[in-house]
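> Could you send the Putative fimbrial outer membrane usher protein prediction when you get a chance?

Sure thing. Input:
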Amino acid sequence: MAIGTPRGNVWTDKWGRAVVPALTPFSESTVEIDTQSLPGNVDVSNGHASLKASHGAFAHWKFTTLSQRRVLLNITRADGTPLPKGVSVVNGKGEYITSAPEDGIIFLNDISASQTLYAKQDTGRCTLSFTLPEADPTQFYEEINGKCL
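Output:
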């Protein structure tokens, strides 16, 4: 990943470490992640740092990133009608995950193939049934069709 510095971009190594040369001594230097250089499945929680270092000093900063798998589900019920807008999606423990923002649409962050999800409707709940293809880390999200059975 690229990191913007006062003297231009530097790149991290395979362990995610980088050296930022020539910070301005005794004054604030801005260092930030170039988010365009990240894979589509990576989120950054703190992509900006203001560092102050004395002459010849080393400053240490850790950027926090998170790798996620996002999925946009196109969900229909067993009868072929779309799952209604506003339906809550919960996990196996009944914990709220998200809601359907539109008829037949559910957006999920950080999904795994082993998760079982349910849609809670007025008439009860149904199990979201879908197959995750092999993950593509270059994509921000994947679009998948599924059923609520």
